[in-house]
Amino acid sequence: MQNQNRKKGQISFAEYLISIVVFVSFVGYFSFQLLNFVPAYLTQIRNEEARSEAYQLSDILINDPGYPINWQSNTGAIQRIGLNDASQNLTNVISDQKLNQFISLCQGNGYFNIKRWFGTSNDFSIVISEINSYSGTTSAIVACKPPAEIVRAINTSIKRFADINSTYFSQIIIQVV
Questions:
Q1: What order of strands is seen across the sheet that includes strand 124-132?
Q2: DSSP 69
Q3: d(CA 94, CA 73)
Q4: pLDDT digit string (tens) for 125-163?
């Protein structure tokens, strides 16, 4: 008689409890997996952003003449810095005059001006070496770095090459921290 009073579609309290436990277990498991995945994913995103920034800085330095184009003659008017030799109208060819002016600008507190002219908030270091095309000898020309050494968990380096003149080419290493 008791079975006749029971309505169809209703579950007992034990079945209800089991379904809640199974549901909470699945939600807990997927939440735990998600929480383990997100930090690694965010680290990869930050790494890619730093790599992208380093490549952009290297490309501006090598393939942009800067603004104004003759900024090496009037350092007070610099709005954007670039080493490309605009007179040759070629990519990956840097100007001797702009390189020499860049070397002098990097000394002292010049790093902060260069950082402002690049328009970046990230800290970076630029190391430019000169390589003799015939002998292969390398000599460091400039190391433009922040005054205090900065150590962070995420940093990346980009190495690029550019022509200075027919005898020398440069190796430019940019590290973004």
A1: 138-144, 124-132, 168-176, 156-163
A2: T
A3: 16
A4: 888 888 887 787 888 888 888 887 777 767 788 898 888
User: What is the phi-psi region of residue 90: left when phi exceeds 0, alpha when psi lies from -120 to 50, beta otherwise?
Assistant: beta
Asked whether the beta carbons of 68 and 74 are under 8 A apart, the reply is: yes
**What gap in Å lies between CA 161 and CA 82, rounded to an integer?**
15
Kind plus residue range of the DSSP H or E element containing 105:
helix 96-106
Sequence spans of domains, the chain: 13-176
Alpha-carbon distance of 122 to 106, in angstroms, equals: 17
The pLDDT tens digits for 68-77 are 888 888 888 8
10 Å Cβ neighbour count for 76? 5
Separation between Cα atoms, residue 113 and residue 116, nearest integer Å: 5
**Phi-psi bin for 89: left (phi > 0), alpha (psi -120 to 50), beta?**
left
pTM: 0.72
Q: The tokens of 77 are what?
A: 């008017």
DSSP 123: -
